[in-house]
Amino acid sequence: MPNPSSPQVAVIGAGLAGIACARTLTRAGASVRVFEKALKVGGRMGSRQTPFGSFDHGAQAFTVRDPRFETALRTVPESIARWSTPAVHVVDPLGRITEAADRSEVRWVGTPAMEALPRAWAAPLADAGALVLGTRVQVVERDAVDSSRWQLQTLGDDGSVRVFAGFDAVLFATPASQAADVLERSRLAPTFVERLRGIEVAPCWTLMLAFPQAATALGPAWNAAFSAHHRVAWVARESSKPGRGPVERWTVHASPAWSQEHAGDDPQRVEAKLRKAFAEVTGIRAEPSHTAVKLWRHAKTLTPLGRPHLWDARLGLGACGDWCLGHRAEHAFVSGLELALAALAR
User: Fold this and answer.
1) 3-state SS of the chain: helix, strand, coil percent to 5?
2) Domains in the chain and their CATH numbers?
3) pTM above 0.85?
4) pLDDT tens by residue, 246-276
5) Which residues form the Amine oxidase domain (predicted)?
6) Could you tell me the CA-to-CA distances from 5 to 167, 190, 265, 346 in Å, in that order?
7) Where are the alpha helices (DSSP H) in 140-208?
């Protein structure tokens, strides 16, 4: 049950930024409710489960540069592992290595799948009943009982409309355009809306392929590469990651420009084009037993905010996300952490 004497905070979005924000607030004694339109936490730190094994179809790996991120990761050592097998190469459109492997920075993954990390950090929130999943925030408005506080109008997956009230602060941890949509609909914070509309983010089509019939590893000697192919930006052998199943599986991220150009295309057409590009880059022309595609509409920040968060102490409104600083998982964590600290200092 919320403690009425503690700051009451609503966090909208349960990706890595939202979980980091809520986790920091809770550890400082605030009472937090986290609202997420999906049915699970993690956002692009999510994983797709299939009969052939998991796919990290969003974030492929993460690096650790900020000491605060490193300290937080130490709290969940069982949920992460060093991706030590592959060196990340740069390859031409035919998969030929054009630059020496990047061995200068360690890459980490969630284990047994990427979603394990946000799930581990969100577990105390779930245990406390602070996660409200499958719920989309439609409007933020002044509380009907106490006009110094906020209330949220929400729409559930089942069509139910609910009102959650009594919040001292409302913090958005969603893609910038989604936060702007809610604020515009709520007729709030026009300065925030203007800043949020200035964030440029590219989509990303993701292709997933499984080859359970393969007795040995298929294709190139490398396991992960940035690609110069006009359709493909990244290719990785999922089965090379620690804690994954042995079935040969590959994930392909389309380039930002190609994804933007084909964002409205039929998924079957996208799949066919990306499979052709995958074969050109890797040399793998075997027929997969499983294929799937997903469009991430808010994947790669092109024009970031340039600061860790937005925060208006007078209104008690804020926004965070990887789009504040860039597009890395670490950017999302730092943004959520720093917004929480700003809200606590109010």
Assistant:
1) 30, 30, 40
2) 8-39+133-198+304-344 (3.50.50.60), 48-114+200-302 (3.90.660.10)
3) yes
4) 999 999 999 999 999 999 999 999 999 999 9
5) 108-300
6) 12, 31, 51, 15
7) 176-186, 190-197
